[in-house]
Amino acid sequence: MIGTWVALRKAGLLGINERNLRLVNDLNPRRLMRLVNDKTETKRLAIEANIPTPELYGLIRNPLDMRNLDKLLDKPDGCVIKPANGSQGNGIQVILGPMRGGWRRSNGQRALFEDLKFHVNNVLSGMYSLSGQPDVAMIEYRVKFDEVFDPISFGGVPDIRIIVLRGIPFVAMVRLPTAESDGKANLHKGGVGVGLDLVNGRTLHGMQNGKTTEIHPDTANPLSNLSVPHWDAMLLMAAKAYEVTGLGYLGADIVLDKEKGPLLLELNARPGLAIQIANRLGIRPLVNATLTANTDGLDAEGRVALAKKLFREYAPGLATA
């Protein structure tokens, strides 16, 4: 047991307890957590900071608002229903568009109005909220994901997770939906995580269910050497998220729309550590360097430039020139 701990320590692996003590507890004041726990607040802040985000069609806050549901759902290109205070993808329903008196879900099944009304009522009851308290249902734009991920994705929308420390983006991965994850880009549901070269957004290594992999389980295509478009814009969006929330440690989840480009989907005040497996990189040395880096006078662009410099220095086996 001690030998394993020493080996992991030597490899630079950051553990969950150290993350909680050094990063979450020290850098994320509890009074600011609601800014990312509540997705309506996150969206408001993003809009104010000119950070692109999926358009919000409307909110269902109580049973009285349910009378507006059919109008909010009446979108030819579909929409997304999600709980404002949900987590891990729970409670999200993706509607592709109208279908013979109802709507087509992302899994191909038809949903009648009563089915969606029942789901929204469950959201309002707090079934999917972090605290179990009554929640708000958001109806928003359905992302049309960029075809760049088609060879390594299955049945859903991939997203890019960028973890930001003191306003410096320092490690990233792309999360890919699979058949096992039911088309959701959630690692705990069986999605695939692929590490990214922070310098240029090139895909590196993959992982699924805590184990390394080099191919997508459904398409069998290799995961490495795919370049993520608009990479610098994504890094800049993640860096700006620090400025609008005040949280020193956060995860920015960004999706790539084929028409609108990068869109900030949500923020997370407790991003997990599986990103180390996806990158095959123990991040403690990079965390230590980022915590002590001099950011005086640096704006978001300056912190992105610093992030690339630090990644080249502390992840030399992954970074490219």
**Which ranges are low-confidence, i.e. pLDDT below 50, for 5 or more consecutive residues?**
none
Alpha-beta content class: alpha+beta
Strand content: 15-25%
How many helices in DSSP terms? 10
Secondary structure: number of strands: 13
Report the end-to-end length measured between terminal Cα atoms.
39 Å
SSE ordering: HHHHEHEEEEHEEEEEEHEEHHH
Query: What integer value in Å does the Rg equal?
Result: 20 Å
The top-level CATH class of the largest domain is: Alpha Beta
Helix content: 25-40%
- Give the name of the CATH superfamily of the largest domain: ATP-grasp fold, B domain
The CATH topology of the largest domain comes to D-amino Acid Aminotransferase, Chain A, domain 1
Shape-level CATH architecture of the largest domain: 2-Layer Sandwich
Outline type: globular
Largest sheet: 7 strands, antiparallel
The figure for the number of domains is 2
Instruction: Give me the side-by-side strand order of the main sheet.
Output: 11-10-9-8-7-12-13
What this model shows, in words?
The protein folds into two domains: 2-37 and 146-314, D-amino Acid Aminotransferase, Chain A, domain 1 (2-Layer Sandwich); 55-140. The longest helix has 15 residues, at 231-245. It starts with a helix and ends in a 7-residue tail after the last helix. It has 321 residues and is α+β, with helices and mostly antiparallel strands. The radius of gyration is 20 Å and the shape is globular. A hairpin with a 2-residue loop joins strand 7 (159-165) and strand 8 (168-176). The protein is built from ten helices and 13 strands. Helix 7 (231-245) crosses helix 10 (300-314) and helix 9 runs antiparallel to helix 10 (300-314). The strands form two sheets. Strands 11-10-9-8-7-12-13 form a seven-stranded antiparallel beta sheet. GO terms for molecular function: ATP binding; metal ion binding; ribosomal S6-glutamic acid ligase activity. Pfam families: ATPgrasp_ST. One of its GO terms (cellular component) is cytoplasm. Residues 43-306 form the ATP-grasp domain. Keywords: ATP-binding, Nucleotide-binding.
